[in-house]
């Protein structure tokens, strides 16, 4: 089983995989979310918010749509969700969503 831990070092988010740190410069997968990953992340986060999960951003008055709040969180890079991708040799690569560009 793959164990991972998020690490924040000098403003850069690194992922600790099986006791080996993989920095943002050494990543093999693209740093952009695909449209399918983006839709899945926004849907999952909007569901969490609609079920009373606390937003990770300050929500302006009048913004009550969970999807709009999730989109704002993604734009600010504050969604606490991990993406699981697979490498070419079927190795699992876990990436934290706020380390991606949308």
TrEMBL record:
Q: Which SMART domains does the record match to this protein? A: RNA_pol_Rpb6
A GO CC term assigned to this protein in UniProt = DNA-directed RNA polymerase complex
Q: Output the Pfam families linked to this UniProt entry.
A: RNA_pol_Rpb6
Query: What is a biological process (GO) this protein takes part in?
Result: transcription by RNA polymerase II
**One example GO MF annotation:** DNA-directed RNA polymerase activity
Keyword list (alphabetical) reads: DNA-directed RNA polymerase, Transcription
The record's annotation in InterPro entries points to:
DNA-dir_RNA_polK_14-18kDa_CS, Pol_omega/Rpo6/RPB6, RPB6/omega-like_sf, Rpo6/Rpb6
Q: What PROSITE patterns would the database entry show?
A: RNA_POL_K_14KD
Instruction: Note the SUPFAM superfamilies from the entry.
Output: RPB6/omega subunit-like (SSF63562)
| Alphabetized PANTHER family for the sequence | DNA-DIRECTED RNA POLYMERASE SUBUNIT K, DNA-DIRECTED RNA POLYMERASES I, II, AND III SUBUNIT RPABC2
Its protein name is: Archaeal RpoK/eukaryotic RPB6 RNA polymerase subunit
- Tell me what organism the protein belongs to: Kipferlia bialata
Q: What is the lineage of its organism?
A: Eukaryota, Metamonada, Carpediemonas-like organisms, Kipferlia
